[in-house]
Amino acid sequence: MGMCVDPGVFRWCQALSRSRSCATITTPNSGASKEAFPIFAPTAGRRRGSRNSNEEGSNGGLCRSRRRFCRRQKATINGTDSKAKTVSNYTRSNTISGDAREDTLHCPQSSPLLVSLDNESKRTQKVIDASVRNSDSSLKRLISSFLLVLCFTFGCCTINPPQDAVHITAILGESVVFNCHVDFPGDHPVPYVLQWEKKVSEKGQEIPIFIWYESYPTHSGEGYEGRVSRVPPNSTFGAASLNLTDIRESDQGWYECKVVFLNRPPKQHKNGTWFHLDVHAPPRFSVTPEDIIYVNLGDSIILNCQADGTPTPEILWYKDANPVDPSSTVGIFNDGTELRISTIRHEDIGDYTCIARNGEGQVSHTARVIIAGGAVIMVPPTNQTKLEGEKVQFTCEAKAMPGNVTVRWFREGSPVREVAALETRVTIRKDGSLIINPVSADDSGQYTCEVSNGIGEPQSASAYLNIEYPAKVTFTPTIQYLPFRLAGVVQCYIKANPPLQYVTWTKDKRLLEPYQTKDIVIMNNGSLLFTRVNQNHQGRYTCTPYNAQGTQGSSGHMEVLVRKPPAFTVEPDPLYQRKVGESVEMHCDAQEAEGTSKPAIQWQRRDGQPLQKNRVKINNGNITIENLRRSDFGYYQCVASNEVATIVSATQLVIEGTQPHAPYNLSGSATEFSVTLSWMPGYSGGPDYKQDYTIWYREAGVSEWSTIPVTPSGSTQVTINRLSPGTTYEFQVIGKNALGDGMMSKVITIRTLDAQKAKKPSTTTAAPNEKEFQPAPEGLGPKPGQPRNVTVVEIPNGFLISWQVPLERAHLVQFYTIKYRTDAQWKTLNRGQIRPEETSYLVKNLVGGRTYYFRVLANSLKSYETSEEIKFPVPARVKHKAITAGVVGGILFFIVAIILSICAVKICNKRKRRKQEKEIIRLQNSTW
């Protein structure tokens, strides 16, 4: 509560000012202190509800409040126009001495208010009216003028709210009345100002929310417009009471009623009251979980439920109408706002309800946890092997919530219904199963089922279908040619699954025994290879293939004719040397033998790279390459072929005046702190160019490379020192000549030895025997494509490893090799080479309970390409079978041994008896 008094009581207020450290006001034209007007500040002990408060501390709070009040009015006045300003350009000085503090406001002499400070309230009222008449009619200017007068005529105090202040509780959205009475001096009504303020911070800062003065418009603070009003005079509440409507949660806090009289004796009872408003609000959710939550078993989820309200709501969790019981996988965290389930189990599925409640009410929200969001494949398809003509069925059982599961089947990536060969034989059942009836040899391949219910990403699972059939001849050429005095082949076009076992041949209706015939060999694919053809090899041949399923019959008769091969009449030079930008023309021509067709001539690069058609022209066997580049460097082949044979003539094209080519065959060995590298030099760019090398290396996983020049110049071996032990490094080499840097070599990876293993150097050449299977080194020539779809299937007599031939460069395959490991070392599984037409291998001695890793290698003449690594855990029961067989075998051996021992004993006894009988007979005869 604050009050202001008549400034006429000068001496009393002056003494009070000295004793209570209250402020004085001095007119600017009176010198240092011509006339001072004390501002009376009643102590907190006179305020309602704070009878024992410290008087001096209260006066200090009063003065601080007055200074804040005046500063607010200064800011308000400075915002008005020149006509509305009644006081301007005032300054302020503070003097502090001991416990006494004096605030002096200096106002211009021309201010009409200073002249009337010692007059009675009526004259003051006239000054206010005059100021208002000279100002704009806006509320802001009116209140500013009036409050400035109050700044000079009375003091306003701010104290901490008393502990026994009036406490009021209201519900959000309702209305409340703060009951504040007005005690007039001597019970005689006099003019007064009503001001309501709210405490907005712990430091005591207050903002006016309502100001009323008779005959002037009321002022409502920001956020209180239209919600605060003075109660009617005829109500049962005090005349200074305030009505607050549409209560908000932000309205909670301390409020003070201040009644200020313009002429009031200082010893009269003071007016003012403190109120505390508690705003209660029923709970309302600010964060809730989704209504339906789809999960998979084993997932982790967090249900978040947050609510606002006053008092702060309490959060309770229920599952299926029962309180949630925390466990090792279920917990409630963050003051109950989070329900966490770390591993979803079947018993965790259900309805979860969070309830927010306080004294004003409660709200609830329910979330349903369901298995699962997207469709989940419960029973995937498995690899199957069928005989041609049988029926095959792949299962694909899926569950989902919602349960509108759609199942689609694909063969090698294409929908099965769009594969023409399967169109009339394929059926997809309602349970998702795929049926092919009957199966044919061409149906072998990978089949994939894809399930979806429109939620999340579709799931898929694959299986491989292996169709077995007797070996059969797919094509019989009526005539085949053999080149005289060269090597030639008589083809038997065979298809077999299981793989081909052997082929029988007849010549001129007689069985041909190739193994007993000179210059004839049966190849792995069953064809006949004649190492040197002569006229006796001409005749009529047939072939009959066999596999584990038997044979589908012999081929037709093939007439084999011996003819002379074509011969080159013009061959390219062994070497062509050209500079960058020039052109080269290489000549080639061939002639056919009598009775054969003219050979076709083609040019190709020996490394298999395509020719640049926009710069290459071929005319009558001659090839021209224009605008030569460094990439044109290499070996070229002229190929002449007809029905009898194919002959090849090779040449080398060297491009001079280029940067060096990439070094190749980079290899290295490591010690604890160093790596020694060696390589083969790439073409230097011409005989006039000298080539130097630079090593680029870095630690694996590091982005930046370090470089080391190789010395002496031209050396193809270098040692990099000061490396860290047990660390993996990457290396590559680049050549450089006078024209600039060349091409980088392939990157190789080498690991330095650990400190305890530094005695024995390691190299990078043992690729197939290391845990991480290394690809074939570069520079060994072209290699086949990658074997595909490697599978391991358990069959009654062992385990069948099957694969598909490469999609690319399958003609380069000379044989297959199977590698396996159960630990870090790769080993070869097959004893002999697997022929290129064979795509499976039977192994019987896998150990039960172990996990095997397999790779299939497609080998060319000098290089190889590996398939993807597959993992196959051997069932433990296989081991049990082996143990059982061993035990049974041991028992049988023991029984046989016993029987043989008994028999041996009987035979020996019988022989002994016979010997004894003979001895007796001999003795008897001698006696006689």
Automatic annotation (TrEMBL):
CDD domains: FN3, Ig. It comes from the Eukaryota. Residues 42-62, 758-786 are annotated as: Disordered. Residues 662-755, 783-877 form the Fibronectin type-III domain. The chain crosses the membrane at residues 882-905. Residues 162-259, 283-370, 374-466, 470-561, 566-649 form the Ig-like domain. One of its GO terms (cellular component) is axon. This is Protein turtle. One of its GO terms (molecular function) is cell-cell adhesion mediator activity. It is found in: Membrane. It is a single-pass membrane protein. It comes from Anopheles atroparvus. Keywords: Disulfide bond, Immunoglobulin domain, Membrane, Neurogenesis, Repeat, Transmembrane, Transmembrane helix. One of its GO terms (biological process) is homophilic cell adhesion via plasma membrane adhesion molecules.
